[in-house]
Fold each of these.
Amino acid sequence: MPNLDGGHYFYTGLFPVALETVARADGSVTVPSHLLREALASLPNFSQVRESQDADRRTERISPFARCRSTHFARLAVIDEPAFNGRDPVDAIKGAIKGVDLSEHQPVDHLSRPWLLFAADFDADEPDVLDRWATELWQLMEPELRAIFQHCTGFDRVESAEAFAAYLLRGQLETTMSFNDYWIDPMPGRPLSLAMVGWVTLAVLALFVGMAWLIQREWGGGWAVWVAAGLLGAGVGVWAAYKLIMARGAKPFPTAPDSDLKSVLKSLCLQQYFTRFAITQQGRSAEQLYEAFGRFLEEMRPDDVERPTQPPGVLHS
């Protein structure tokens, strides 16, 4: 299913940046796209300093998106122009015969204005979770969101969490190529195989052949009935197989075990501390290792995703 896959919602939105000139406090004149870049450049990203954590395990340098304990990733970028991939490749011999002038540029796409890209990946258990996530985001980081989106057209009418959710919905693009790699073991459920698709096609074809047999027995019709039934049955069978494939492909992958943000952060924490544990226990006896591992389990509490854990917005190893 677009946008939702594997217990995660993949949001993608594009928002038009305003074009009107803006006067700064010092009297200089600039444009909203420059102010937007300044706002994004000043937005905290992540922290690598353990000692700067306060009682809430947050620092001034941590991204405000880390306040939302369901957001895995968030990205903001200004798009001025589409990427230019060079000239379209052509056959050199055919081009020479046709007299193609390689010094003459081919058509190039341009945008009428800069656009703000907003992409995010967050925990979701149903397709209609976007409003809830956007509302929570507004409640947790309204000042930062205003500093960013105030340079986009239409945002001046956003005055509440509900209005912000509607604003994100208006700018949303369907995400059909999401990336989610939390599955380690084979996913449960019966996969769709070629044999299953073939059986569906043959079942529909057999149904039409059976109908042709009944028609032939009751009313006659000769070989034309069999030909028509075969063609119709094959066509409808292929159509049914196609619909089956599309319906199965539209279903999102089930949620992978321990793929929510809290579990992922806990896994990162255990990975780091267990690596240190393995290094420090080199050369210990079996009894010493057994006692040390018991203390490790008591201290780290692997089944408790709340603590101790990797703080969101903090990057260290």
Note: The first strand starts at residue 4 and ends at 5.
Amino acid sequence: MSARGLEFIRHWTENNIDLNLRFRAGEVRARVLAAACRLDARAALVGLQEIEDEVGELEEAIARLLETRVQVF
């Protein structure tokens, strides 16, 4: 368990994902956000494993977060 990884991902998602927005392409958006998150984690010297120990696979975790916000046409 990594308190540092959990704190990083909580802070990162709060500052980088607007859950009030609706996304049509949630899967693509999750991939882009996960890539950005990995880069920011690396810059903050937080290991990806620290984050994934807390939330599971990063892209899937972000996809789950976005899933409730996908707008169906």
Note: Residues 3-67 form one domain.
Amino acid sequence: MSAHRRGLQIELDHPTAGSVPGVANPIRFSKTPLEFERAPPLLGQDTDAVLARLLGLDERALEELREQAVIV
């Protein structure tokens, strides 16, 4: 049976690609409906926040990594 027929195929709004296909969570809750609020992030969208939080990198360190093409 296809993902579409099982109700697992969803469409999400994407900031640059318009509407993109996605796969819904196959787990169903009887009293709590699942919500799919956003499409996957763009490449590098959360890089600064993650590296700052996990590694304690500041803006200068992030810019140096960007200049060295280590991150985008």
Note: The chain has a mean pLDDT of 88.
